[in-house]
Amino acid sequence: MAKVKEIISAIHKVANPQLAMSWDNVGLQIGAAEQEVNKVLLSLDVTENAVGKAINTKAELIIAHHPLIFQPLKNITHPLYLKIIKHNIAVFSAHTNMDVVQGGVNYALAEKLGLKNLEFISSETGAELYQIAVFVPPSEMTDVAPAAFAAGAGKIGNYENCINDYDVSGQFKPLTGSNPTFGEVGKLHKTVERKLEFFVESFHLNAVIEAIRKAHPYETPVYTVNKQQRQSDNFGLGVIGNLSQPISLQALAGEVKEKLGCKFVKLWLAGEKGSKKVKKIAVCGGSGSSLLAAVQNRAQVFISADFTYHSMLDSPLPLIDAGHFYTEYPVLEKFENILQQFSLEIEYLLPQEHEIKNEVVVV
Hints:
Elements: E1 2-3, H1 4-14, E2 27-30, E3 36-37, E4 39-43, H2 48-57, E5 61-64, H3 79-86, E6 90-93, H4 96-99, H5 105-112, E7 116-122, E8 129-136, H6 141-151, E9 164-172, E10 189-201, H7 205-215, E11 222-227, E12 237-248, H8 249-260, E13 266-268, E14 277-287, H9 292-295, E15 301-305, H10 309-314, E16 319-321, H11 324-328, H12 331-339, E17 345-348
Parallel strand pairs: 4-5, 4-17, 5-6, 14-15, 15-16
Antiparallel strand pairs: 1-3, 2-6, 7-12, 8-10, 8-11, 9-10, 12-14, 13-16
């Protein structure tokens, strides 16, 4: 058993809500944060079938990738919303914030397809990147730097505790009422300090500043905060990875269909032969058309969904469209992994239970 807010906190440690795109709506959408939960239903969407299964299995919480509510509501009269409220079911969504993290949608898809050595296609997220510089006595660096790291600073890609540090000369004159660590009130004091520089994402910024202030020996620590023109290397949309062995485009399309359980896939050869061998693969769960330019010359084929007629026609890169549902469904296993820390019963809305089952392929 766990409270809704405890489950949300665990998911947000992996996929901070500030990583979500500005147009998105993530988090708790219906229900009380204090509600006790024994059973969770995992579903890609909050649909009639999902709510029906939650009711039938007595799940108190639905965790979905796609938000139930995207736009502000003027009233709550929709039968689905009323049914959710009537049965006291909480609804939570982790959408684009789950897209851009390691261990999120795109990593789940890449792992399902057997890709290794993953890197993000684009560093686009809803968060911003900052650089913090703080001046400390050389002897105090061993206190301040670890405090900043523990609060979330200094992580770059697969590296942590990243820092630039160097000596700088400075001066200050303590005024009446001050309590200087060094120097005397009323006298100019010259010193050599250590300048520490870290990168930190916007959602860790306040915690890092607070940690620095607590660990710093000065009553008035000196630090600067500079917003960066680039985004963090720690997050991003889509991933590129390698297969263990080269495979033909035709065979790869077949493997994608089998491994994701798709009813069909569309293969755009872009002028290549189906027998062409490929190894470096780009993937993006859900709609990946916006990343087409970013994968050019970086991968040999792009696996995603929702490619338009013209985006396929204009693409010089072979494309495999495996469908929005099927390229994102693997993320539900990532949600389950996060929930393992709690004593919860977990149900899935399986593909054969989802409304996607009503999709009919006519050939």
